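hey
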């Protein structure tokens, strides 16, 4: 029976809760309080839904059979009340939905403008960096730039690529929403169209194209430069250590104070040095070749390299000239010293017999003699005359001996050599030996008379 469904009041409360849950809490209601349920429903309906109280709660609760028509009329009042409310709510909902859609569209437009401006500004700042194909010409600086580029590829570009894709998606979505809402199509501000963004992105990728390859080539060039610079430094250090003191040695006049044997030893030593010099020719050529390659590759400290290379080359040319001059000087000195040595040897050969003759003559002239007959005196006088006859030959021999010493001394002076002692003889020429002999001859002649 229809009216029995509303007897406990829960049905009226359920209708109100279904359409206006804000007016009562249906979960707190029970069947055990039908009168309370009815009064609650009737009071809320009258106060909030403008439905007049057509029924009495006690009458419905206590009567065995209520008037079904009255109940149905009252229930229909709920229908009309909720029907009117629903239409208003629907209209309001539609208006709110339209306003919400418009607001969302406006937000999407503003967000598009913001993202487009941000992306284009990032491209504007990044593109010149990618187009700049210059480094500080140092290995450390180029490695740092390569690290920055790889960070750009890993960390900076991917979010911007996602931002570009989002802009394209949001733009298409916004145009679809506007078309469905019968709104005019969205036109971004000048320079922020999708076509502008695509063109800017293509320009970025064009600048990016080949950037890493160029950086890697530059890095390999600088690594090669660093290797060559260290190699140049090492070879220069070795060469300079080897050449230290060589110029002083080659310009030395030590050979002017040497004997023939020492001079020959110096000549052999010089031949060994010439062989060593020829062996170092290859190193000097390598130094020059490395310096040339450093010039071609654009080494940043090329001025210092060129200066050092030029110094080494100049020194090398000087060493070559001095080596040749010393070889000529040693050869000439050896020839001259051989001449002096031959004079010394000839002096030794002549001086020893002459000194022996001189010593013997002195002994004979000062020697005491005992005679007993006139014939003995005559014999001594004859022998004395024969001795005096040999004085001319002895004088000539003495002059030859003195001339040998004089020639040796003059040869040394003319060639700038130091006059050394005779290695073959310790005999010194006596300038007054002839006068001494003559004096002794005079004394002996007096005695013989």
């Amino acid at each position: 029976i229809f009216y029995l469904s509303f007897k406990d009041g829960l049905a009226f409360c359920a209708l109100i809760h279904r359409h206006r849950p804000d007016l009562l809490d249906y979960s707190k209601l029970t069947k055990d309080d039908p009168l309370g349920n009815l009064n609650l429903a009737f009071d809320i309906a009258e106060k909030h839904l403008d439905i007049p109280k057509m029924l009495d709660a006690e009458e419905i609760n206590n009567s065995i059979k209520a008037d079904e028509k009255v109940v149905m009329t009252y229930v229909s009042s709920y229908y009309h009340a909720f029907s009117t409310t629903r239409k208003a709510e629907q209209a309001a909902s539609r208006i709110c939905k339209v306003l919400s859609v418009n607001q969302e569209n406006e937000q999407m437009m503003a967000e598009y403008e913001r993202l487009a401006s941000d992306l284009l500004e990032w491209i504007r700042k990044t593109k010149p960096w990618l187009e700049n194909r210059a480094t500080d010409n140092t290995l450390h600086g180029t490695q740092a730039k390569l690290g920055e580029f790889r960070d750009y590829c890993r960390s900076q570009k991917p979010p911007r690529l996602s931002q570009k894709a989002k802009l394209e998606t949001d733009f298409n979505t916004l145009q679809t929403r506007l078309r469905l809402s019968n709104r005019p199509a969205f036109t971004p501000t000048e320079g922020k169209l999708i076509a502008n963004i695509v063109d800017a992105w293509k320009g970025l990728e064009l600048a990016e194209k080949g950037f890493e390859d160029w950086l890697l080539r530059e890095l390999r060039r600088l690594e090669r430069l660093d290797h060559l610079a260290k190699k140049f430094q090492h070879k220069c250090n070795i060469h300079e250590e080897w050449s230290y003191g060589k110029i002083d040695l080659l310009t030395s006049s030590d050979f002017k104070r040497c004997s023939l044997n020492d001079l020959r030893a110096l000549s052999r030593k010089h031949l060994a040095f010439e062989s060593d010099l020829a062996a170092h020719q290859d190193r000097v050529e390598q130094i020059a070749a490395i310096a040339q390659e450093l010039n071609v590759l654009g080494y940043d400290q090329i001025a210092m390299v060129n200066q050092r290379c030029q110094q080494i080359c100049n020194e090398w040319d000087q060493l070559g000239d001095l080596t040749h001059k010393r070889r000529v000087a040693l050869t000439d000195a050896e020839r001259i010293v051989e001449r002096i040595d031959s004079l010394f040897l000839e002096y030794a050969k002549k001086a020893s017999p002459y000194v022996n003759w001189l010593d013997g003559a002195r002994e004979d002239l000062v020697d005491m003699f005992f005679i007993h007959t006139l014939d003995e005196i005559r014999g001594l006088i004859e022998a004395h005359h024969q001795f005096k006859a040999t004085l001319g030959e002895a004088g000539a021999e003495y002059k030859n001996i003195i001339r040998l010493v004089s020639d040796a001394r003059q040869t040394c002076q003319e060639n700038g050599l130091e006059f050394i002692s005779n290695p073959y003889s310790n005999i010194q020429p006596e300038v007054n030996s002839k006068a001494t002999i003559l004096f002794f001859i005079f004394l002996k002649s007096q005695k013989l008379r």
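The CA atoms of residues 361 and 387 lie 9 Å apart. The chain has a mean pLDDT of 81.
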